[in-house]
């Protein structure tokens, strides 16, 4: 069964545009190889962090939304954990609203 996931990750602010594009392509390819579908990627740009992470005050925020099985998440997060360019990441499982059942008026 496919589930909708959202992964938000923060890249180091000293990366140039080409390095950012390479990082995005690397993680997109990784989840495609794991069987992810409906991949949407948004580059949110450079923003100020709420607190210092790994001696960085700013970061480049990237958001990925995709559908797939739960086995996609572990290899993606492992690659991000081992990467020098990613300073923080978070994956959440999206709650998809099921179609509401119609209410039927019952008269006694």
Automatic annotation (TrEMBL):
GO cellular component terms, semicolon-separated: cytoplasm; ribonucleoprotein complex; ribosome
Gene3D superfamilies named in the record: 3.30.70.60
Record's keyword annotation contains Manganese: no
Tagged with keyword Protein transport: no
Gene Ontology MF, one: small ribosomal subunit rRNA binding
Keywords: Ribonucleoprotein, Ribosomal protein, RNA-binding, rRNA-binding
InterPro entries tied to this protein: Ribosomal_bS6 (IPR000529), Ribosomal_bS6_CS (IPR020815), Ribosomal_bS6_sf (IPR035980), Ribosomal_S6_plastid/chlpt (IPR020814), Transl_elong_EF1B/ribsomal_bS6 (IPR014717)
One Pfam family here: Ribosomal_S6
One GO BP: translation
Role played: Binds together with bS18 to 16S ribosomal RNA.
Family under the similarity heading: Belongs to the bacterial ribosomal protein bS6 family.
Protein name, per record: Small ribosomal subunit protein bS6
Protein source organism: Nostoc piscinale CENA21
Upper taxonomic lineage: Bacteria, Bacillati, Cyanobacteriota, Cyanophyceae, Nostocales
